[in-house]
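Record type: ASSEMBLY
Status: queued
Input:
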Amino acid sequence: MSGSVLEVKNLHVSIEDKEILKGVDLTVKGGEFHAIMGPNGTGKSTLASAIMGHPKYEVTEGTITLDGEDVLEMEVDERARAGLFLAMQYPSEISGVTTSDFLRSAINAKREEGDEIPLMKFIKELDKDLDYLDIDQNMATRYLNEGFSGGEKKRNEILQLMQLKPDIAILDEIDSGLDIDALKVVSKGINKMRSDNFGCLIITHYQRLLNYITPDFVHVMMQGRVVKSGGPELAKRLEAEGYEWIKEELGIEDEETAEQNA
Amino acid sequence: MTVETKLPFNQEYIQAFSKDRNEPGWMATLRSKALEMADSLDMPKPDKTKISNWNFTDFQHSYKEAAKIASLDELPEELKAYFDKDASMENLYIQRNQTAAYNSLSQELQDKGVIFTDIFTAMNEHSELVEKYYMSDAVAVDQNRLTALHAALMNGGVFVYVPKNLQIEDPLQAIFWQEDTDSALLNHVLVVAEEGSSVTYVENYISHNDTEETVANLVTEVFAHDNAQVAYGAVDNFAAGTTTYVNRRGVAQRDAQINWALGQMNDGNTVSENITYLLGDNANSEAKAVSVGRGKQTQNFTSSIRQFGKETDAYILQRGVMKGGASTIFNAIGKIEHGATKSNSEQESRVLMLSEKSRGDANPILLIDEDDVTAGHAASVGRVDPLQMYYLMSRGLEQEEAERLVIHGFLAPVVSQIPIESVRKQLTQVIERKVY
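Status: finished
Output:
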């Protein structure tokens, strides 16, 4: 079976009546790694949140489909069970719920009743992924994200990614606040997911993550739109020259982008 | 039935009841005096909850002997769930209605002088010991009309006595099973831990009277002598027809510790007060309580720790979940008396509201009569965080499952403190049943 297809067409999204996305088009297929780059406040995280169904974001126009199914008609949990995953920039802390209890519930949520993952199998696979991501075993018994450092939260998001094995994952600034060692570990986890059945949309502010994860496609977002797309070489040029040349090339003028820190 | 109405029990009835139980003279006298006082005493006045039209005084009290339990196998499944099947269950008391129907205590503990028996047997066999503690220094007969009524009509309970320097590792468990739907329970639990001893005691109250109205009037008195430790766990699970007054008190002497973990899962109207006195220097107490309100029930919970000794340490933790049209008041009262220098009083009360119609209130109260102390409090009433729900649902959990996790997580700091695993599981199931 070949991978899933996430298709975003002419997506307009508002938060509290302010339009952030102004017509985004994007297609991510199984087997493809896409990177979305761009200056702060251009709507990158808004795109991620809108795809997952964050309660504060309102889609005013356009469509999102997964394998032809209307994602916008789905509740957040239905989107997840349909195969979407979002590694969040600011994961919530859930007091009193251990990481391992939560993960087991999440894995079982995707499985039929009566076909729950056997406990021993779950523990074995969890231990394996914890090791792979260089995470202390005791994280499994700590309350989900509670008191985690920034780096621990990011690793935990990737741990969940590896455990839940979605068809399409969106990683929202998974590299922010990571030191170089943590960045390497997180990248290692993401790279391990690579297969024909896994598509990934990597949202990042910095090119440095792309030194460890090679994208097949790079998109630049500005002022709520994807303004330029290319291959890995585009990321390299952005690293070297910044975003000004794109603005000049496309005749984009600075407006109120700086305040749209979404 | 209003407060002014005369009580439906007279001296003649009470003396006959006492005689039937073969009680010592001091108990007959105590009952008689209590009944005299009851008419003139005021009802308790729980802060912000009006109880004047609750029925606490009109109930069936006649004693019917219930069948003994020959083997635990014959108990209904619902009750068996409270036991640890893997554990040996050597120290167990089951009260069926008002009858001591099952009682076991390991030979080893018997040999060491531990007493774990129903309150009537205890009064006969250890009259002086019971008299010394019974409704004198912890709960006073004349505290209010309901404590007096309790003293006059007490009809069940258990006595726990731990001799000096004995550490009991296995918990003692008591199950108060109201099999009949109509009879009132005026239950008395007395726990005495002598100097340097330690004990864990867990109790469960169970009834099924969803519609038949009755009353539970419960008193617990815990005494921890110098350097003694008492861990007290409870799951109260009276059905909707029972109106409950429960008064649990502890008295801790020097270096002593009393820790409470109370699962307050009644479905009927409830007034609960849990008060601990830290009399000795360096005594400490944690009072943790959890509650789920549902339907139309009204509840009022007070947790209070009064600190008299120097360098005492108190921590109150209350967690409540409200749904339907339930209304609940949580009062946390930390009181540091003059002279209790270098003491610390901390408290935290949090209420989670699941419906628009429910009402919850958390009142943090600190009363401090000493300068050289530390204290802190936190209180909140709120709804389930939509961002937490979004996060959990984004991993595929259905809304109900996500909410369930958040609620269990919210209650976990108290639930995890219940000492016996099977009781902890049972409490979790009761929470589940009440929330959904």
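Annotation: The first helix of chain B runs from residue 11 to 20.
Annotation: The longest strand of chain B covers residues 214-224.
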